[in-house]
Amino acid sequence: MEQVFSKLKGDRWLWIIIIVLSVWSLLAVYSSVGTLAYKEGKGTEVYLIKHTLLIVGGFALMYFSHLLDYRWYAGISKILMAITIPLLLYTLIFGETINDANRWVTIPVINQTFQTSDLAKLALITFLARTLTRKQESIKDVKRAFLPIMGAVCLIFALIAPANLSTALMLFGVSVLLLIIGRISIKQIAYVCLGVFVLLILVIALGPRRQTYVSRVQTYMNGEEANPDKSFQSDHAKIAIASGGLFGKGPGNSDQRNVLPHPYSDFIFAIIVEEYGAIGGVVLVALYVILMFRCIRIVTLSPKAFGALLAAGLGFSLTLQALANMAVAVGLGPVTGVPLPFVSMGGTSILFTSIAFGIILSVSRNIDEVKEKTIATQQKNKKVVVGEIPAIG
């Protein structure tokens, strides 16, 4: 094990958490795809193999991402934004429609779909981290610093929100966090919030999914009284969690996996609690909390503002997404369709999540390298000083 970790640089606890989540994901996905396999006439092993390959591919991307000096991502962020904006616009107009939402784009040749919002999260967070770092000396300048930041946040929100409002709101929350850390004034942050609020009202009032938003909120507030059909998912998620008890029914023994529409993605946390009990659910929550704690530690230790902003933005984004998914499963929020990072079955979302983890680990690796160089320099200087002391006697 020590030999393995010697090749993996960066925060060792983050690596351990990622490995545990990956193994748990394989077990949970394999347990919950039975109904999907039956509907599509495939064996459950097909989905297990596909999911395993995605996780292995994710680890490969994570490994190479963490080897790359995190400062390179400042330049890459400009390229990502240049790709993301037209891609989001294309998705909004010509994207694949699944569950009444245009969130997906089909990649030619391999015929694989992916949510462009996954790329947008990575692009916006890295771009904001770069801009806030570069504009620190003129951070109060409206034209040079504030307008580019506000424009990026509002534009990305406007392009994601019509098809994926929950993701847009979470990304906006992460953006506000970065603005606070980046010393943007409260007045300017208020302007950003006002601009996004206006866009939110327009999306809810005029967007193509306005009826879905209203229905979900009404269902969350009133339950079966609003619409028994709409509360079906949340009701059975609660049944799964309640029937799990303290220790659960055991791996592969879930009953609600055959009832819930998306037990392998949106409601995988409910299946995990049903099979592993409340103890399993608490352990899973604890893993994400520890993940955020380690990211905060990286933020405090990072010698450069860009690295600190990157770790804060990406770490908070992953943790917020995880908490949102689990909150929906236990009935603390309306159904959103947000997957559980690195646990839910997914396609390219796993790959983008892996890259995000890789960037955080790259910042951590740089901290370790700076620390090692500092210690080496101190030891070298100490030897020089000791060597200059004349012999006594």
Provide the descriptors you would attach to this structure in a database record.
393 residues, mainly alpha, 3-stranded antiparallel beta sheet, 14 helices, 3 strands, 72% helix, 4% strand, globular
Summarize the structure.
With 393 residues, this protein is mainly α.
The proportion of residues in beta strands is: under 5%
Helical run tally: 14
Cα(first) to Cα(last) distance is 51 Å
Helix content: over 70%
Number of individual domains: 2
Please give the number of β-strands. Answer: 3
The shape is globular
Q: Would you identify the regions where 5 or more consecutive residues have pLDDT less than 50?
A: none
Mean pLDDT: 83
Cα gyration radius (Å): 23 Å
* Biggest sheet details: 3 strands, antiparallel
Decide which structural class fits the backbone: mainly alpha
Q: Secondary-structure element order, as H and E? A: HHHHHEEEHHHHHHHHH
How are strands sequenced across the largest beta sheet? 1-2-3
How would you portray this structure in words?
The chain is mainly alpha-helical. It folds into 2 domains: 1-67 and 232-363, no CATH class; 73-208, no CATH class. It is built from 14 helices and 3 strands. The chain has a 3-stranded antiparallel β-sheet. Strand 1 and strand 2 form a beta hairpin. Helix 2 (12-32) packs antiparallel against helix 4 (44-67), helix 6 runs antiparallel to helix 13 (305-329) and helix 8 (165-181) runs antiparallel to helix 9. The longest helix has 41 residues, at 348-388. It is globular.
Mind sketching the topology for me?
Blueprint lengths: L1 H6 L4 H21 L1 H7 L3 H24 L4 H23 L1 E3 L2 E7 L4 E4 H19 L7 H19 L4 H17 L4 H21 L3 H13 L9 H13 L23 H34 L3 H25 L18 H41 L5
Antiparallel strand pairs: 1-2, 2-3
Helix pairs in contact: 2-4, 2-12, 4-14, 5-6, 5-7, 6-7, 6-8, 6-13, 7-8, 7-9, 8-9, 8-13, 9-10, 11-12, 12-13, 13-14
